[in-house]
Design a protein that fits this description.
Layout (H helix, E strand, L loop, with lengths): L10 H19 L5 E8 L5 E10 L2 E9 L8 H15 L4 E7 L4 H6 L3 E6 L8 E7 L2
Length: 138
């Protein structure tokens, strides 16, 4: 048996690992397909200025990233995009959403969107505190 350490993401390997997890999950929870869900906003030049991206699986919207360009922050674009993404997630059968964020990023934003902090990891030198948030739709 050989062990390798890789310092680059190789999609074939990642896909194989994800497939293994899916197979395990299916044996416990039944067949479910994870679907990507992304909502973006473009400016008049067709440049992406904000967006939310994640996946839906087992009735949850797993949010991977939320971003708003510096020049558009404070205009409630993140809130508008979150509302649209959550509407779409609900249409896909999601009953909840989850996300994590660092202390300097957006814990207050998510709380204003109705998410509840369900856990944290402490910060330490060079790494800020991390928040885990959850929102039930029903």
């Amino acid at each position: 048996m050989n062990i390798e350490v890789l310092h680059s993401e190789e999609s074939k390997i990642v896909d194989q690992l994800v497939d293994g997890v899916r197979e395990f999950n299916f044996s416990h929870m039944g067949n479910e397909t994870s679907k990507p869900l992304t909502v973006i906003m473009r400016d008049s030049n067709n440049t992406i200025v904000a967006g939310i991206s994640g996946r839906t699986i087992y009735h949850k919207f797993l949010i991977n990233v939320v971003w708003v360009s510096d020049e558009y922050r404070g205009q409630r674009l993140g809130y508008q995009l979150m509302k649209l993404a959550e509407q779409e997630a609900k249409q896909q059968g999601c009953k909840a959403a989850q996300v994590d964020t660092l202390a300097f990023q957006a814990p207050n934003f998510y709380q204003k969107c109705g998410f509840e902090v369900i856990g944290t990891t402490p910060g330490f030198d060079g790494c800020p505190e991390q928040y885990f948030l959850f929102k039930r739709y029903e």
